[in-house]
Amino acid sequence: MHNFKNLKVWEKSMALAASVYELMEAMPVEEKYGLTSQIKRCAISIPSNIAEGAGRNTNADFARFLDISNGSSNELETQLLLAQRLNFLDASDVTSISNELDQIQKMNYKLINKLRE
Fold first, then answer.
1. Residue 17 confidence (pLDDT)
2. I need a labelling partner for 35 at 20 to 30 A (CA). Which of 24, 53, 83, 90 fits?
């Protein structure tokens, strides 16, 4: 079992989730139960899966949850790009979040590889 609170990737993904929540304030009110809600769920899913995996008994289980976290980060980026295409979000905001997601994914992949050694 790993202590997720000591993982830099978890801390970084928590900060990302908070940034996404702030960014969602710019979304149209009519998207509250649609795209906005889905984007928030994806953002929360990233650190949540890291934490859940850290609590599992084996490194293989932990790595599987990190894979899920990476999937959520791809889903989040896709939805943010859609929001940008629909002119709900500025390109600079989406680019900033995308850059953070890239860093988190790289950290996740390194941790996955370490766990699978």
1. 98
2. 53
The per-residue pLDDT for range 90-117, each reduced to its tens digit, is 999 999 999 999 999 999 999 999 999 8
Which residues are within 8 A (CB) of 117 and not within 5 positions of it... i.e. 6 or more apart?
none
DSSP string across the chain: ---GGG-HHHHHHHHHHHHHHHHGGGS-GGGTTTHHHHHHHHHHHHHHHHHHHHTSSSHHHHHHHHHHHHHHHHHHHHHHHHHHHTTSS-HHHHHHHHHHHHHHHHHHHHHHHHHT-
Report pTM: 0.94
Burial class (CB in 10 A: 0-12, 13-18, 19+), 93: middle
